[in-house]
Amino acid sequence: MTPLLRLSSRPIGRSLLRGSCHRPHIVSSICKSEDVMDTHQTFHNGIRPSSSFSSWTIHNSAVACPSRPLSTTTSSSSSSSSTDQPPNYTLLSHDSPEVLELINHHARKPQTSASLQTLMKTGRGEFLHKMAKQMPSDSTGGGYASVEMFPEESEATPLVLLQVASFLRRELPIRLAHRIQDLQRVPMLQDMASVRQVKDLYTTSFLEILSMSKHPLTREGQFEWERQFASILENIYERHGSVLVQMARGAFELRAAIRKGVLLGGDDDGCDDGAKTLSNVELTSSRNSVEFELMESTHAFLDRFYISRIGIRVLIGQYLSLRQPPVENYVGIICSKTSPYEIVKRAIDDAAFMCTRKYGDAPEVIITGRLDMTFPYVPTHLHYIMLELLKNSMRATVEYHGVDADYPPIKVVIADGSDNEDVIVKVSDEGGGIPRSNMKRIWSYLFTTADPEIQEGMVALNENVDHSIDSPLAGLGYGLPISRSYARYFGGDLSIMSMEGHGTDCFVYLTRLGNTREPLPI
């Protein structure tokens, strides 16, 4: 008999991802972003899987690895004396020829994709033997090859952190350079003040990483370098937390400009006072039919940007989380025993809290299927997806049937089998469905039925409110397209089927094996 659990969605408080799969140290937001990239690595919207990264190795330098036990006690003086310090690129103007050449140089390099399995194996130290081929033994005849690693250890060793940091020192400038160029070239959106601010933010982070020296040759210098690099990435991770809302603000500005009939811009100093326009060309009489939600080129850019942002934050978040004390069943931000059932329960609690705050009540949710199943995944990603789907279903159900009605339950089915390639979660509601003419728009950024004043208020904030239960039940309109990007990042997908006048079925596909590479934008 199929297991069945009934959950009352009457909230008892704000829940967090807790239990065996709660990693409190790093929350991977979007964060944090596409068109279909399935396990066959299909090409869509200029997105393709990049070169495979099956072993993270130390680039552009040699590492001396002594045979005696590793010590993490270092002195900064040894670090500075054993390496050549690169120029401080952060002192350069972002528009200088030197910076533009640096961006172009790194953007010509291919990005290196990673899979969920690769992230886990690297965090466990299973690829450290790849470093041994590059590194000479020390004078005692020991060398790196004599250091044994235990893949089942949950705590990252200093060498693992050094290996990951070295990869990020090489990879992150390449990824940032690709996105900086994309921000410079996207039609119309590039001229919005908020988007220019994001470009400056990415350029600052790009130059900060390049200004970090390559790790030195001495053992003490290596691990001091790693700690300094971690400090830089911690600042970047925090500083980029508001990028989602900043880009939403830029898209909001663009849509407002289009609907007014004039592409409004800003002065050369970046202050958008409305006194100047980027173009005096009035849109034609058919401009009222030009909808932002249907501008394919802009949305292709936003898909590329957000999938890349998810990737950057996953890599940085994984590295920073590896530096924290170990948590059971976790390798960085990845839980090896993620329970969809537990994640769905937390999402129900959070969605019900938001719905009850708005309407005074919330529909019941029934969960059936494989309630005992676990698989490796990033719990925060799955929670974001499920929270978005459940809060949409609750809102639709309450508004369709009326605040004082007896609501039909929302049904969640978790499907999995030993021969299945995917873990599948279905969310079904009877909230009246979606008109067929709006089905394409639900994947559009800033398409939302929320109160325009609420939406305008949200984009006025400079914080990542879209990822919080403190945000309105309906807000930026980014929820569905970004949820789909989260699902697609590790090879899954999100699809929606709707019957107008009845309800909507949402299907979340998550790859069980975790061996699909990132769909990195070109």
**CATH hierarchy, class of the largest domain:** Mainly Alpha
Order of helices and strands: EEHHEHHHHHHHEEHEEHEEHHEE
Residue windows where pLDDT falls under 50 for at least 5 positions: 6-20, 24-83, 134-153, 264-289
- Average pLDDT for all residues: 76
The CATH superfamily of the largest domain is identified as Alpha-ketoacid/pyruvate dehydrogenase kinase, N-terminal domain
Identify the overall geometry.
Answer: globular
Please describe what this structure looks like.
- Residues 71-83 have a biased composition (Low complexity).
- It is an enzyme of class 2 (transferase).
- GO terms for molecular function: ATP binding; pyruvate dehydrogenase (acetyl-transferring) kinase activity.
- It is found in: Mitochondrion matrix.
- The protein has a six-stranded mixed β-sheet, with helices on one face. Strands 4-5-7 form a three-stranded antiparallel β-sheet. Strands 2-3 form a two-stranded parallel ribbon.
- Strand 8 (410-415) and strand 9 form a beta hairpin.
- Mean pLDDT is 76; it is low at 6-20, 24-83, 134-153 and 264-289.
- It is built from 13 helices and eleven strands.
- It is of the alpha+beta class.
- The longest helix has 28 residues, at 158-185.
Set down the secondary structure blueprint.
Elements: E1 4-7, E2 51-52, H1 76-81, H2 97-107, E3 112-113, H3 116-123, H4 128-132, H5 158-185, H6 193-210, H7 219-239, H8 243-260, H9 296-322, E4 330-331, E5 334-338, H10 340-359, E6 365-369, E7 375-377, H11 379-401, E8 410-415, E9 422-429, H12 452-459, H13 479-489, E10 493-499, E11 503-511
